[in-house]
Input
Amino acid sequence: MVQTTQSTKRLIDLRGMKCPAPIVALNNETRQMAAGELFEAVADDPAFELDVKAWCRRKGYELLTIDASPQETRAVVRCPV
Output
């Protein structure tokens, strides 16, 4: 599910999905985003923190922040320019 937040970054809600579904969904959601666009992805899958870091490196996305708690992980990412 994609929403737009107040700071004009998209929110991609990946909660309720289990590996590998969050990364598959994230990949699908970001295909239509513009270069330099920001988004925040939130997931409750314990593997998401490591997965999103690897996905960003592999795809050329810039991982700006990551905040992991036992309940969920939030990652703010910039699309490649």
